[in-house]
Amino acid sequence: MRERDARVVAAAWRLIAREGLGALTVKALAGEAGVPPSSMLYTMPNHAVVRERALEAIAPAIRQRIGALPAEPAEGPERARMLLEALLPLDAERRLEASVLQVLSASALTEPGMQPIWREVDGTIRDVCAQALRAQGVRGDVVALDHLHTLMAGLSAQLMNRGEGRSTQWVHAVLERELTR
Questions:
Q1: Which of 128, 70, 131, 59 lies closest to 97, judged by CA?
Q2: Could you write out the DSSP letters of every residue in 10-30?
């Protein structure tokens, strides 16, 4: 992604998280990105492209975060915990990402062009869940994968809905219970 496009996508993430999709006007987006409004025609020619590019940026961000995790422990419940916690909005960067994902997931329900992008993001999250299961010696159990994937989506939504000022101890307790079942 070109530097200017990356700045515009980052600006779109901030606007979506702060004010919702209605805030994605050319003027607001250009102002947030620090680019001339006239350049937006070349960078992001319409609102659909802005939404698509904003959603497209999520899967690589997740993969980069997972790739940056320490190599050890390579398996076991601690590895699974590291992988799963990397999916949760437990810091400002991941809260921003999760907020954008929540908003754009809803858009993907009615925008056919967004659906394959959403599936890639969701597949990336599911792949991380599968890695967590493999770290615990679980392979090929589709029901376990569906369960964990659903649990992670619910935990993420609850973390976002409860607000950033509240304690996250409960989510760690839920993960601990899940990992020791």
A1: 59
A2: HHHHHHHHHH-GGG--HHHHH
For residue 155, report the phi and psi dihedrals to the nearest 5 degrees. Answer: -65, -45
The domains of the chain, with CATH numbers, are 1-54 (1.10.10.60), 57-181 (1.10.357.10)
Please answer whether residues 68 and 30 qualify as being in contact, where contact means their C-beta atoms are separated by less than 8 angstroms.
no
Note the pTM of the prediction, 2 decimals: 0.93
Q: Please tell me the predicted confidence (pLDDT) of residue 1.
A: 56
User: What is the distance between the alpha carbons of residues 89 and 129, in angstroms, rounded to a whole number?
Assistant: 15
Whole-number Å distance between alpha carbons of 112 and 38: 28
Q: CB of 24 within 8 A of CB of 51?
A: yes
Contact 99, 36 (CB under 8 A): no
With contact defined as beta carbons under 8 Å apart, do 24 and 12 qualify? yes
Residue 93: partners with Cβ closer than 8 Å, 6 or more residues away: none
pLDDT by residue (tens digit) across 113-127? 999 999 999 999 999
